[in-house]
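Field log, afternoon session.

UNIT: design team B
ACTIVITY: writing a sequence onto a fixed backbone
BACKBONE:
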């Protein structure tokens, strides 16, 4: 998942994967939850490519705004 989130648009950025119990998969940026596998609409165990691309776009926008 980290490799999918980091591409050419998101450089010099740390991604931390923290193992937890209960099948949780959440993505946060500066305390804001961008994705939660257990929220309604996230039916599959692994997030869809479309969902990951949307998260990646939000990450790139947030990082671009800080530079």
């Amino acid at each position: 998942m980290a490799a999918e989130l980091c591409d050419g648009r998101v450089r010099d950025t740390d991604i931390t994967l923290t193992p937890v119990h209960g099948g949780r998969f959440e993505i946060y940026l500066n305390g804001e939850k961008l994705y939660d596998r257990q929220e309604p609409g996230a039916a599959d165990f692994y997030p869809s490519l479309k969902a990951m691309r949307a998260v990646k776009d939000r990450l790139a926008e947030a990082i671009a705004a800080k530079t």
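LOG NOTE: The mean pLDDT is 74.
NEXT ACTIVITY: expression trials, pending approval
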